[in-house]
């Protein structure tokens, strides 16, 4: 095809695609189009929305999968030895946490539509693409109530085909007990190889950000246009934004100062934006479910 024709053909395809995405599946208001952006292995992302232009009674699809650890710093895997990188043949897709010798906890939206044979887990490395060990997954146990449209019950267990020998760079994280109390403002740590939203910050190395737990009711209020947050979710971040998990961090750990796995990176509106904290699956809620399926 001639270059000119090819260009015209391409812009036509782009125009039609934008029309379909904006006109049928989402909303176009005051120039704001909520465009679901496909990302490697994922299906839907809401990227841009003009909050002032939206009436408060419409419920938008949950935004997710749009960025990486923002406002953080490089850490070594020995600082977060429970952290794993979940991979397909294309490389890193999500984070996860070692919870026992043969078990990893991640997000259900990371495993949705995948088969165990296609997944690998890199453990014991500060870099997602090299080092440590690459283990096979024997079985995916995805939460039976996981709901893709509102991201509720975003939990998945990965049964590994080999036992992990614990060392300084690979070990299990403690799960919360039913009676543990986590308070608004408690500082937690989120880690991952996700987007830093800053070209000068490498995403090859594991990064960490410190984020305080965010009041549940206030978080639900902030996200009311996206359906609010459920009891299976916990929010963390600053009202002024700046530090957050982002694209590629999903499935990864949110850990309290006492070393307890409080949350699993799940979703949020963009990354590190003021008034939109990160939303995590609340591990305490899934404690019995984890015990039932893994014995952990
Ligand atoms: C993601 O795509 C993702 N800022 C994770 C967390 C958040 C946004 C996106 C929250 O993995």
From TrEMBL:
Keyword presence, Secreted: yes
UniProt GO cellular component terms: extracellular region
Predominant location: secreted
Short name of one Pfam family: Trypsin
Keyword field: Digestion, Disulfide bond, Hydrolase, Protease, Secreted, Serine protease, Signal, Zymogen
InterPro entries: Peptidase_S1, Peptidase_S1_PA, Peptidase_S1_PA_chymotrypsin, Peptidase_S1A, Trypsin_dom, TRYPSIN_HIS, TRYPSIN_SER
One record GO biological process: digestion
A single GO molecular function term of this UniProt record: serine-type endopeptidase activity
EC numbers, comma separated: 3.4.21.4
Location of the Peptidase S1 domain: 69-295
Coiled coil: none
SMART domains in UniProt: Tryp_SPc
Enzyme class of the recorded protein, top EC level: hydrolase
Record's catalysed reaction(s): Preferential cleavage: Arg-|-Xaa, Lys-|-Xaa
Subcellular location as annotated: Secreted
Family, per entry: Belongs to the peptidase S1 family.
Protein name listed in UniProt: trypsin
Organism: Ceratitis capitata (Mediterranean fruit fly)
Classification lineage: Eukaryota, Metazoa, Ecdysozoa, Arthropoda, Hexapoda
